[in-house]
Write a structure and sequence with these properties.
The chain is mostly helical. It is built from 2 helices and no strands. Helix 1 runs antiparallel to helix 2. The protein starts with 15 loop residues before the first helix and ends with a helix.
């Protein structure tokens, strides 16, 4: 009788979780690049503001 433990090698291989993580990482990178391009286009000269906006955006992405 089983005690609830199982051999992980008997389970089918699934790469769903790693695929989701990879996709999220790619989308995060694309979002960061797009945001950087937008603020570089519309805000010239104020590097402090750009940096603060980028930091806030990245913090929101991490949530």
């Amino acid at each position: 009788m089983s005690d609830g433990n199982f051999n992980r090698q008997l389970l089918p291989k699934t790469e769903l979780a790693s695929g989701l993580r990879a996709g999220k990482a790619q989308m995060r990178t694309k979002a960061e690049k797009a945001f950087t391009e937008v603020i570089d286009k519309f805000i010239q000269g104020d590097e402090v503001l750009k940096t603060a906006m980028k930091q806030q955006f990245m913090e929101l992405l991490r949530q």
